[in-house]
Amino acid sequence: MLRDDTKVLPRAILISTGGLVGLLLAYRKGFFRKIFYTGVGLGGTAAVCYPTATKELFRASLANAAELKKTIEAKTGTSLSVKKEEKRAPEPVAGANAEDVSRR
Q1: CB neighbour list of residue 69: distance below 8 Å, 6 or more residues apart
Q2: Cβ of 87: how many Cβ atoms within 10 Å?
Q3: How far apart are CA 74 and CA 92, in angstroms?
Q4: Residues 87, 90, 96: CA angle, nearest 5 degrees
Q5: What is the DSSP letter of 10?
Q6: Percent helix, strand, coil in the chain (nearest 5)?
Q7: pLDDT for the residue 102
Q8: The dihedral sign for the CA sequence 17, 19, 23, 26
Q9: Tens-place pLDDT, residues 21-76
Q10: Where are the beta strands (DSSP E) in the chain?
């Protein structure tokens, strides 16, 4: 029933219900959590009702985010990429013998 494109009213009701459920889950939370939960409820149910449009929107959002990252990196001259640090063995504490360090 929801996959049929001519049935707009059931989709609208389902999406509105998702937003209302999100709002009810955030009943005693702060203002920003109410906005966030409501948005997640609306977005989640809209993604169920309109899967192809959601995929297109997600791909476009990723492309825009990558373009924004390149623009910021070009203007600031710094890299926003997170570099993984190599794991190194902890350095021994001065004045401690080898047995004390191995027991830690």
Answers
A1: 80
A2: 5
A3: 42
A4: 170
A5: H
A6: 65, 0, 35
A7: 56
A8: positive
A9: 999 999 888 999 999 999 999 999 999 999 899 899 989 999 999 999 889 888 88
A10: none
